[in-house]
Amino acid sequence: MKVLLHGTVEKLRAGRVRLLWLVLGAMLLVSAFPLALYHRQVLHLSQEKLVDTERVQQTEVTRSLSDEISLFESNLTQQLISERQILALTGLIQDVEDPAAQPKVTRLLENFVASNPKTFIYLTAVGHTGKGTGASQGNFRPEQDPFVNKSLKRAFATCVQSLFFRSDPLALDDRPAFVIAVPLQVGDEFTGMLAAVVSLEPVLHRLQETSVRGREVFVVDRFGHIVVHPSSREMVPGTDLSGQSPIVAQIRALPQELRATETVRFTRKDKNRGVEMIGTYSTLPEVNWAVVAQRSLNDAREDAGVRELNRQALAFVLVVTLVAILVGYFFAVGISEPIRGLAASTRAISRGEFHQRSS
């Protein structure tokens, strides 16, 4: 009999402990666990919304910049055509190599360059033999830069065929530039070339303005070479990105005449680790360039406050868990009082104290 009562007491004691854990577990199950599931679902939905928002923003940025660059380039060409018309109206277009005409031609070129100090670095007018005159900003000399000199020679060879010319991207002291040229003609007769070395500083400033909070916006040509990059010293014009960036490699594979805007997600290698990226490109078939905007998803989350939301949600779950533990503990203690009374009565009966009753 005593052995049986003693076993009952031990079971009650163990039951008290088990009851406490059961109550605590139940409180956590009905309070913190649903919150944790809800938090996970909200984060998943926030992630999808974040990607959609970033896609819209990148699309707006790339399309806007592509329109600006297209307008910028067409204005440059139109300015050269207007200068060519001035040469035609003054009768200088027939032979810009004529020693008697060169002072007038030089004055026209100098006035043109002086009126466009932020864009035109150098302007030259040459005759059908490749000789002529020019005007420049500061002390710039095209013959001192082999890449510029080579581009001007290619421009002349193109203009001989009565075609307009636009060079590949150039780097002048790590600053983006390129060469454009239009043929000089009297009727169908080729008389020379009007060529300019153009700075892309205005485009560079716009890219730097939009490359904020981890977003990187740059311009590449159809071969994947950098035309303009906000970090012009590290990423100089002409650098091939097609082997480093999946989105640039995709641009290189597009048809030359295609005008398209597309957003892609990809993984970029950074110090032997993969970084989730989202990027958008908009092509400019008229100049064979493309504007690219890309950003890591971590930077996008940070900018959208997802991490802060995650920290706040976790803090809330921890507070709710602590409250559930405290409430569950006191609740378990409260309902265990009758059990302790029963255990005390059982122990008294086992000692032969039949006058004590369980409460």
List its salient traits.
359 residues, 8 helices, Beta-Lactamase, alpha+beta, 6-stranded antiparallel sheet, 3 domains
Q: In summary, what is this structure?
A:
This protein starts with a helix and ends in a 9-residue tail after the last helix. The protein contains eight helices and eleven strands. It has three domains: 62 residues; 110 residues, 2-Layer Sandwich (Beta-Lactamase), CATH 3.30.450; 90 residues, PAS domain (Beta-Lactamase), CATH 3.30.450.20.
Give an overview in words.
By secondary structure, this protein is an alpha+beta fold. It has 3 domains: 2-30 and 318-350; 90-199, Beta-Lactamase, CATH 3.30.450.20; 215-304, 2-Layer Sandwich (Beta-Lactamase). The chain has helices spanning 2-30, 32-89, 102-115, 146-159, 201-210, 246-252, 297-304, 306-350; strands spanning 120-127, 132-136, 165-166, 170-172, 175-186, 189-199, 216-221, 226-228, 261-270, 273-284, 289-296. The chain is rod-shaped and about 135 Å long.
CATH class of the largest domain: Alpha Beta
CATH fold descriptor of the largest domain: Beta-Lactamase
According to DSSP, the number of beta strands is: 11
Main sheet overview:
6 strands, antiparallel
User: What shape does the CA trace take?
Assistant: rod-shaped
How many angstroms separate the termini? 23 Å
- CATH architecture name of the largest domain: 2-Layer Sandwich
Proportion of residues in extended strands: 15-25%
Order of SSEs: HHHEEHEEEEHEEHEEEHH
Contiguous runs where pLDDT drops below 50 for at least 5 residues: 1-5, 11-16
- Helical residues, percent: 40-55%
Rg is: 38 Å
Into how many domains do the coordinates divide? 3
* Mean pLDDT across all amino acids: 82
Q: Give the helix tally.
A: 8
Find the CATH superfamily of the largest domain: PAS domain
